[in-house]
Structure formats: structure tokens, C-alpha cells
Amino acid sequence: xxxxxxxxxxxxxxxxxxxxxxxxxxxxxxxxxxxxxxxxxxxxxxxxxxxxxxxxxxxxxxxxxxxxxxxxxxxxxxxxxxxxxxxxxxxxxxxxxxxxxxxxxxxxxxxxxxxxxxxxxxxxxxxxxxxxxxxxxxxxxxxxxxxxxxxxxxxxxxxxxxxxxxxxxxxxxxxxxxxxxxxxxxxxxxxxxxxxxxxxxxxxxxxxxxxxxxxxxxxxxxxxxxxxxxxxxxxxxxxxxxxxxxxxxxxxxxxxxxxxxxxxxxxxxxxxxxxxxxxxxxxxxxxxxxxxxxxxxxxxxxxxxxxxxxxxxxxxxxxxxxxxxxxxxxxxxxxxxxxxxxxxxxxxxxxxxxxxxxxxxxxxxxxxxxxxxxxxxxxxxxxxxxxxxxxxxxxxxx
Length: 398
Hints:
Strand order of the largest sheet: 4-1-2-5-3-6-7-8-9-12
Order of helices and strands: HEEEHEEHEHHEHHEHHHEHEEHE
């Protein structure tokens, strides 16, 4: 898989996600954190970081949901330059309004536990899951690797707007944002009042260190390059970096055991992004034998399904080894999909995915408010009739 193709896939994926939520979501204006620029907390192009805030009301006035946008990573100067002129690298290119849906919905029917909360969507423009911090700026390329500073600046801005008085708080995110919610989970908790109920939710952020179908550790090398390019090592949990190379600390399987804050993992066992980019990156399939399968699980041959079942087994092994506490939540379904909390049809609707007759929204809500624990893993594909399996029509070899 070429780095440019990975970037192109992310652009397409995020555009599709925005199209899905725009139809029925609340439109929320953008907020630019202009004060962050003086601190060097800037996007790849040097512009101010940004977020969208829908204020809470009533019983949710002192409750905060902070959700981090996804969008992959850039792992070298070339791929970061590709992002620099887009909304994944510049707040100048971001839409000034976006739709809030799913976990960000403001309707009690669509989001019964969090609809009245202060809801924030933090825009993603650094390419490192908010971990980078390199002081030097190349005078020619003018790339700023400052993701960790962005995270801190946004948190300070939200604390000043009332989050410092939070009674309930949930950090969440999708994909690269889901990884953000894992990497920054304890750090987020430390910012909030001691008496606050604070928890973390990762949606499609549990990326595993798996070799591709050609037997090559593509994703491990890619993450190592991300960490090196962005200077991320000093901002990754020292409990991991003291034992493993920093690039390995981008994998949640090497992080989660040390996290003290309650954490919920929402993930598909056949995560479509991981299948397309970790298990079968383009470079591992030069003749396109996997092209149809990795775009539509229904097109997989018997032998390809056996490989996917093996991937599921490896994924479940890594997830299961982390879950040793009732404070941990787990919703692992057997769908071919990537990110399930931002879409209303997947989060909570009349035909949402379920595990044990429980929707994702209800599972997360029950866990957050300690009404009941939730740790369920689905049976293997194709047993789950509630899945909304995606078919990817783009032709990029992502």
C-alpha cells in the first residue's frame, strides 16, 4: 500500500462519513482556538486548532462528552505535506459547520444518555493522534508537528468554558480519534475534578500489530515512522515506552493494561479499515486478488474467509488479554465496518447492531452510569443478522 493511497482512502472515508451524518444531525459551528497559536499548538500548516461545541442544558449542564475526529496518520514529510492543504492538516480548510449525530446527537430518542450534555467534536489536523511535538519547523516545508500541544490547548480552552466543573465526563473518538481516547485516557481523567465520574470510549481504535497476507509487518513499520516523524515518544505513556520501542506503544494491546481510568472498547472484529490497510495493504496484494473481498466481505472466497477468521482470532486474543476488570466495557461485534458511534443508524436506531439484544448506545450508557457492566463478543461472521456491513466502492488500493 502506498502512503499516498492510504491518505486518499482516508479522504474518501471521512467524506462518506460526513455525508452519512449530514442528513439528520444537528449543525454545530466551529470554534478556532486562536490563543493556541502563540503557544505553537497548531495544525500541520501552522493554523489554529479547532473544535465544535454544542452546549449542554438541564441535567446535562455539567456533563461533558469530548469526541476526537479520526482521519489516519501521516508518517513522513511526503504524506504530511499531502495533508497540509486539506482539513486533515489545516483548520483553514475545515467546514465551519458540521453535523452532530449518533453519540453527539441532541435528541433523547437517538442518544438517551448523552443528548443533554456539553458535546464537543475536536477536529483532527496534526496526523499523529495528538501525540506529536517537534520544536523545529522546516523553513522549506513549513510543517508543524504539534499534536500534543493541540490536545493540551483544546483541553485548557474547554476547562475554561466550564469543563473544570464537570460532574460527568467521557472522552471518545473514532479510528485515529479512538486511538487518541486510549493514549490520552488517564491524562484526560487527571484534568477533571476528583469527584467527577470520568471514563473513556474508543470506537474502532484498537489497532492490532498483525502481519499482512504477505507476511510483512507493514503497520508496525508505519506506526514507527509516525512516532519518529512527529516526535511522539515523549508523549506516549511511559509505562509502555519504558519497556517497548515507542512505535509499539501506538498499539493499544501494549497500552490498555496500564490504563487506570475505566475504558470501553467498541470495535468490529472484522474492522474494515484494518482488513483493508493492515491485513491486506495494497503492497501485499500486487495482483489485486483480495480487491473484491476487502471492499465487500460478502465477496470473499472460502480461503479468504479463513484468513479473516484468523485475523478475528488474533484480534480477540489481544482484546481479551486486556479485560480483567468490571470497570472495562467491551462491545465487539462481527460486522465489516469501521466506526459505529458517530452514525445514528449504528449508534441507536430501529435496526441498529446489537449484542445480547443490546444496542451500542445502551451498552455504553449502562456501562458509563454503572447500571450494568457490558463485556460481550459476537459469534463469527456471518452469524450476526443485525450487522450493517459496509461495501466500499472506491477504487483506491488503500
